[in-house]
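Design request, tokens follow.
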């Protein structure tokens, strides 16, 4: 299980870093510059709107915020206090801005941390948060919490997400990613992990505030069926045009599962394809990478790719994976006792 936990965190970081230079660009622009599919890490070009002149292999907010969530889970013995998460995210954004970064908090999280700072009760701060910020940083919850009891896992997703993303749409999306990671750690294939994700999305959709938006569970099932059997480059066009690659949970999260269904047995090709889609493709690749890494273990990625993200970014993902697995072990022990 250790290799799978590390695979989830490194997969997230690898996908994120691959998508760093392509994020927020149109697919047409990505194809013109890099070809139909990326072949590896690339630097952020000077005209990259969010990550100009960043070194090849640099991770972005997705990995940094997932690590932040992971660290808070470890510090809290498996639980996260919503106000603590909000203050840590705010501190993270300030540190990023001080470093001159343009990669700051997304729309839902930004609104939520401002509301928390203004004294709005935490039950209210995430009531309009429907974008993919919770799903992009939730993988550590999937490592720390066993998935056999899906409602219990969804409870922990809500605990780690609701301060900024307290809507059925966003909680369904985050539940899907966490459940897929958790199932992967238990040895599920991509196909089985996707089924768990759909079940968890149905549960998550009933949590938080209702907000208009397509059904995440239905869209994951639809998006994976849509690309079944298609050549990868045709699938990429279809995901881009029909599923969508925006920061909205209803697009980017089904897109990540669609990519996985194109390459269920090849995590590296899956993240390369995801990072080539356009739109919020660093986040799509980060979510796909976390799930693929959980399913296949860290050995599913080229050693050189793992070494690159480890060397370029000062992140101790190996240690965090071990700590999150300890929490999972404790949770399983407690369940057995009951
Ligand atoms: Mg990002």
């Amino acid at each position: 299980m250790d290799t799978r936990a590390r695979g989830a965190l490194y997969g997230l970081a690898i996908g994120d870093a691959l998508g760093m230079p392509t994020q927020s660009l149109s697919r047409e622009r990505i194809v013109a510059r890099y070809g139909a599919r990326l072949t590896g890490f690339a630097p952020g070009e000077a005209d990259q709107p969010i990550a100009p002149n960043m070194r090849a292999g640099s991770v972005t907010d997705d990995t940094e915020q997932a690590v932040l969530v992971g660290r808070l889970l470890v510090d809290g013995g498996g639980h996260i206090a919503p106000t603590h998460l909000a203050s840590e995210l705010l501190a993270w954004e300030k540190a990023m801005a001080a470093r001159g970064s343009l990669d700051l908090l997304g729309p839902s999280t930004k609104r939520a941390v401002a509301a928390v700072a203004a004294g709005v009760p935490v039950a209210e701060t995430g009531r309009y948060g429907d974008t993919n910020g919770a799903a992009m940083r939730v993988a550590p919850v999937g490592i720390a919490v066993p998935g056999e009891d899906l409602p219990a896992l969804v409870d922990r997703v809500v605990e780690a997400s609701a301060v900024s993303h307290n809507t059925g749409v966003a909680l369904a999306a985050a539940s899907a990613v966490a459940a897929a990671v958790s199932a992967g750690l238990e040895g599920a294939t991509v196909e089985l992990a996707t089924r768990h994700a759909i079940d968890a999305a149905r549960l998550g959709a009933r949590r938080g505030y209702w907000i208009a938006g397509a059904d995440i569970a239905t869209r994951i099932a639809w998006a994976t069926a849509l690309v079944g059997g298609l050549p990868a480059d045709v699938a990429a066009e279809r995901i881009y045009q029909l599923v969508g690659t925006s920061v909205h949970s209803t697009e980017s999260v089904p897109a990540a599962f669609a990519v996985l269904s194109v390459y269920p047995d090849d995590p590296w090709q899956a993240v390369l394809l995801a990072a080539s889609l356009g739109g919020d493709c660093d986040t799509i690749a980060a979510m796909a990478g976390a799930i693929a890494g959980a399913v296949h273990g860290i050995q599913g990625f080229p050693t050189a790719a793992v070494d690159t993200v480890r060397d370029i970014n000062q992140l101790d993902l190996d240690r965090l994976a071990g700590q999150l697995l300890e929490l999972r072990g404790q949770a399983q022990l407690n369940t057995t006792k009951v």
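Comment from the thread starter after seeing the answer: thanks! Residues 2-337 form a domain with the ADP-ribosylglycohydrolase fold fold (CATH 1.10.4080.10).
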